[in-house]
């Protein structure tokens, strides 16, 4: 691709994209209206470009973008499902957009009602007792949940509980969030079925265990069949169970974390509940708890008394605020619209189709790629490019080659316990035709690895840019334009 | 995959070169190959005491960030600061470019590590 200039580099002095009428009020110098110390010394360095320059520049950029609206996006553990446009219509209603978060509660009863009802809906879906909608995304939800666990143990005078146990297949955010909240992280091994090893778990939990963080189904796309025993082991040691909701798309309407013994849950509305995801979202990571942890939830909660909704700040044991105002409200509205339009039966079908699609795709690929945990998967599965690696072709090369076939690559090199991992999550929104086309592409690439490996190693060939220098990008990132 | 005779090896893919009471520690060729291009390394402070199995450094590649575990107990007496500016040296020669040196507090721990032959077998089983 020909290098296109940045919009700053297109700037020509005096060129502009607007023409304003003559000013019909007396001109006042800026210095006379704004205190000197509030004025900038230099002019803002904004590009001087024409309207058509701006339109072409950003149209071109938008065409380079690859999103779920342009194609299949099987990014494992991310649930890149299609987001129905009706969600956007609902969130754009003026009753939601033309309000201010500091308005008196009496004037925004509708907005508060949405928050209140969403708490009830998410509680029903997960089997928890109460939700805070404040956390801005999944990792923020994890941090909030762990702060609640910490506050709970401290409130009980159980101050020596400073360890959080995570499986070796965990999302990287789990140990990172635990460390952020000041816990020590203890890793527990998976067994040869890809599940938490019960004996290894028993060996690491004791009276210093604050809790266990678990994703179920886990990051291998496998359901932890021993979950009740796992919960029992952790609870008997006095610890709490934290559910990472990243993989909730597999069990909607079928199984509930609350019934499995989890005490704290976070959900990713931008995964499971079909709100935009990636490119900054914004996301939303509501946190749900069981009754005994309710007092520790962030303030404010939305209450309902005498027919009115109100913001409840009178919660003395609360960990406090974790986000300005009430979370990413617009995202909550979109997810609410999704849940209401799907209904209980619809949500159950979501998970059934997500699991069916993943198993179908796994069966198609089995003959061509190593499947390290060869059993029924849930909503996603992991294959390994170890066979291809023997020919000198890595998971990274295969991922890059997929782009030539017009697909977004799957998650690579995760979970860490599988070598040359490719983690594929088709989601429920894809048709059989799309799944077949994706499988055909991967099968074709497996053939290329045998016959012309250099073609795969040199991929991508058809994208606007070829292989990027990831080392340089990581070590010397250029984050802003400088003249 | 390159393995060097005379070094001791851990199951977490670190190597140890013993010089008297000093343990020179790095990561193996297998480790650097699995990690891919290394972009950052986080070195420990000199003077820190570590137990065998403690995370003592962090190696970050384009794929993942991984802990380096100390194969033996002791006190950090030297770190290879040239890796801070050029972490890719580990990819180029993982045995020449050591990460840290420990003054061992219990040289007996070396007995639980593998020799070159044992480590080679271990890697084959892993693959």
TrEMBL record, chain A:
<dbReference type="Pfam" id="PF21478">
    <property type="entry name" value="GcvP2_C"/>
</dbReference>
<comment type="function">
    <text>The glycine cleavage system catalyzes the degradation of glycine. The P protein binds the alpha-amino group of glycine through its pyridoxal phosphate cofactor; CO(2) is released and the remaining methylamine moiety is then transferred to the lipoamide cofactor of the H protein.</text>
</comment>
<feature type="modified residue" description="N6-(pyridoxal phosphate)lysine">
    <location>
        <position position="271"/>
    </location>
</feature>
<dbReference type="InterPro" id="IPR049315">
    <property type="entry name" value="GDC-P_N"/>
</dbReference>
<dbReference type="GO" id="GO:0016594">
    <property type="term" value="F:glycine binding"/>
</dbReference>
<dbReference type="InterPro" id="IPR015421">
    <property type="entry name" value="PyrdxlP-dep_Trfase_major"/>
</dbReference>
<dbReference type="GO" id="GO:0019464">
    <property type="term" value="P:glycine decarboxylation via glycine cleavage system"/>
</dbReference>
<dbReference type="GO" id="GO:0030170">
    <property type="term" value="F:pyridoxal phosphate binding"/>
</dbReference>
<dbReference type="GO" id="GO:0004375">
    <property type="term" value="F:glycine dehydrogenase (decarboxylating) activity"/>
</dbReference>
<comment type="subunit">
    <text>The glycine cleavage system is composed of four proteins: P, T, L and H. In this organism, the P 'protein' is a heterodimer of two subunits.</text>
</comment>
<dbReference type="InterPro" id="IPR015422">
    <property type="entry name" value="PyrdxlP-dep_Trfase_small"/>
</dbReference>
<dbReference type="InterPro" id="IPR023012">
    <property type="entry name" value="GcvPB"/>
</dbReference>
<dbReference type="GO" id="GO:0005960">
    <property type="term" value="C:glycine cleavage complex"/>
</dbReference>
<protein>
    <recommendedName>
        <fullName>Probable glycine dehydrogenase (decarboxylating) subunit 2</fullName>
        <ecNumber>1.4.4.2</ecNumber>
    </recommendedName>
</protein>
<dbReference type="InterPro" id="IPR020581">
    <property type="entry name" value="GDC_P"/>
</dbReference>
<keyword id="KW-0663">Pyridoxal phosphate</keyword>
<dbReference type="GO" id="GO:0005829">
    <property type="term" value="C:cytosol"/>
</dbReference>
<dbReference type="Pfam" id="PF02347">
    <property type="entry name" value="GDC-P"/>
</dbReference>
<feature type="domain" description="Glycine dehydrogenase C-terminal">
    <location>
        <begin position="351"/>
        <end position="452"/>
    </location>
</feature>
<comment type="similarity">
    <text>Belongs to the GcvP family. C-terminal subunit subfamily.</text>
</comment>
<feature type="domain" description="Glycine cleavage system P-protein N-terminal">
    <location>
        <begin position="31"/>
        <end position="304"/>
    </location>
</feature>
<keyword id="KW-0560">Oxidoreductase</keyword>
TrEMBL record, chain B:
<dbReference type="GO" id="GO:0005829">
    <property type="term" value="C:cytosol"/>
</dbReference>
<keyword id="KW-0450">Lipoyl</keyword>
<dbReference type="Pfam" id="PF01597">
    <property type="entry name" value="GCV_H"/>
</dbReference>
<dbReference type="InterPro" id="IPR003016">
    <property type="entry name" value="2-oxoA_DH_lipoyl-BS"/>
</dbReference>
<feature type="modified residue" description="N6-lipoyllysine">
    <location>
        <position position="63"/>
    </location>
</feature>
<dbReference type="GO" id="GO:0019464">
    <property type="term" value="P:glycine decarboxylation via glycine cleavage system"/>
</dbReference>
<feature type="domain" description="Lipoyl-binding">
    <location>
        <begin position="22"/>
        <end position="103"/>
    </location>
</feature>
<protein>
    <recommendedName>
        <fullName>Glycine cleavage system H protein</fullName>
    </recommendedName>
</protein>
<comment type="similarity">
    <text>Belongs to the GcvH family.</text>
</comment>
<dbReference type="InterPro" id="IPR017453">
    <property type="entry name" value="GCV_H_sub"/>
</dbReference>
<dbReference type="InterPro" id="IPR000089">
    <property type="entry name" value="Biotin_lipoyl"/>
</dbReference>
<dbReference type="InterPro" id="IPR002930">
    <property type="entry name" value="GCV_H"/>
</dbReference>
<comment type="function">
    <text>The glycine cleavage system catalyzes the degradation of glycine. The H protein shuttles the methylamine group of glycine from the P protein to the T protein.</text>
</comment>
<dbReference type="InterPro" id="IPR033753">
    <property type="entry name" value="GCV_H/Fam206"/>
</dbReference>
<dbReference type="GO" id="GO:0009249">
    <property type="term" value="P:protein lipoylation"/>
</dbReference>
<dbReference type="GO" id="GO:0005960">
    <property type="term" value="C:glycine cleavage complex"/>
</dbReference>
<comment type="subunit">
    <text>The glycine cleavage system is composed of four proteins: P, T, L and H.</text>
</comment>
<dbReference type="InterPro" id="IPR011053">
    <property type="entry name" value="Single_hybrid_motif"/>
</dbReference>
């Amino acid at each position: 691709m020909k290098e296109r200039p940045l919009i700053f580099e297109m700037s020509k002095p005096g060129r502009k994209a607007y023409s304003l009428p003559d000013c019909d009020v007396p001109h006042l110098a800026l210095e006379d209206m704004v205190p000197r110390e509030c004025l900038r010394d230099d002019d803002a360095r904004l590009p001087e470009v024409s309207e058509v320059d701006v339109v072409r520049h950003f149209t071109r950029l938008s065409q380079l973008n690859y999103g779920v609206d342009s194609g299949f996006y099987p990014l494992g553990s991310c649930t890149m499902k299609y987001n129905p446009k009706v969600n956007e219509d609902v969130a754009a209603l003026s009753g939601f957009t033309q309000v201010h978060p500091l308005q008196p509660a009496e004037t925004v009863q509708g907005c508060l009602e949405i928050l209140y009802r969403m708490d009830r809906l998410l509680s029903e879906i997960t089997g928890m007792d109460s939700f805070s909608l404040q956390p801005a995304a999944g990792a923020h939800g994890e941090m909030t949940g762990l702060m609640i666990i910490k506050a709970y143990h401290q409130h009980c005078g159980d101050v020596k509980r400073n360890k959080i146990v995570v499986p070796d297949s965990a999302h990287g955010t789990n140990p990172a969030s635990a460390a952020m909240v000041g816990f020590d992280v203890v890793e527990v091994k998976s067994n040869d079925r890809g599940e938490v090893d019960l004996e290894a778990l028993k060996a690491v939990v004791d009276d210093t265990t604050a809790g266990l963080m678990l994703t179920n189904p886990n990051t291998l796309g496998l359901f932890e069949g021993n979950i009740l025993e796992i919960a029992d082991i952790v609870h008997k040691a006095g610890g709490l169970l934290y559910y990472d909701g990243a993989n909730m798309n597999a069990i909607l309407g079928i199984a509930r974390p609350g019934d499995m013994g989890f005490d704290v849950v976070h959900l990713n509305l931008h995964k499971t509940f079909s709100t935009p995801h990636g490119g900054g979202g914004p996301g939303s990571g509501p946190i749900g708890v069981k009754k005994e942890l309710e007092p520790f939830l962030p303030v404010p909660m939305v209450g309902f008394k005498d027919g009115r909704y109100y913001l409840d700040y009178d919660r003395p044991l609360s960990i406090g605020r974790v986000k300005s105002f009430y979370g990413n409200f617009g995202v909550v509205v979109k997810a609410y619209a999704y849940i209401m339009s799907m209904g209980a039966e619809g949500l159950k079908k979501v998970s059934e189709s997500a699991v069916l699609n993943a198993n179908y795709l796994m069966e198609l690929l089995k003959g061509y790629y190593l499947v390290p945990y060869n059993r029924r998967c849930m909503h996603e599965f992991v294959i390994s490019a170890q066979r291809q690696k023997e020919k000198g072709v890595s998971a990274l090369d295969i991922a890059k080659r997929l782009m030539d076939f017009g697909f977004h690559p799957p998650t690579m090199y995760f979970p860490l316990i599988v070598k040359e991992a490719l983690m594929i999550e088709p989601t429920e929104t894809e048709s059989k035709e799309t799944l077949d086309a994706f499988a055909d592409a991967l099968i074709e690439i497996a053939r290329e690895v045998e016959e012309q490996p250099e073609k795969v190693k040199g991929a991508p060939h058809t994208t606007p840019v070829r292989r990027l220098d990831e080392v340089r990008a990581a070590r010397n990132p250029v984050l802003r334009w400088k003249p | 995959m390159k393995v060097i005779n005379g070094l001791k090896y851990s199951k977490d893919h670190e190597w140890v070169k013993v010089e008297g009471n000093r343990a020179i520690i790095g990561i193996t060729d297998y480790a650097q190959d699995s990690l891919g291009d290394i972009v950052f390394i986080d070195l420990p402070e000199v003077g820190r005491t570590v137990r065998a199995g403690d995370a003592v450094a962090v190696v970050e590649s384009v794929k993942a960030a991984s802990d380096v575990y100390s194969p033996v107990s002791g006190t950090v007496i030297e770190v290879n600061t040239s890796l801070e500016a050029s972490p890719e040296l580990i990819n180029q020669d993982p045995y020449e470019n050591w990460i840290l040196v420990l003054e061992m507090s219990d040289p007996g721990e070396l007995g639980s590590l593998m020799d070159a032959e044992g480590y080679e077998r271990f890697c084959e089983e892993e693959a």
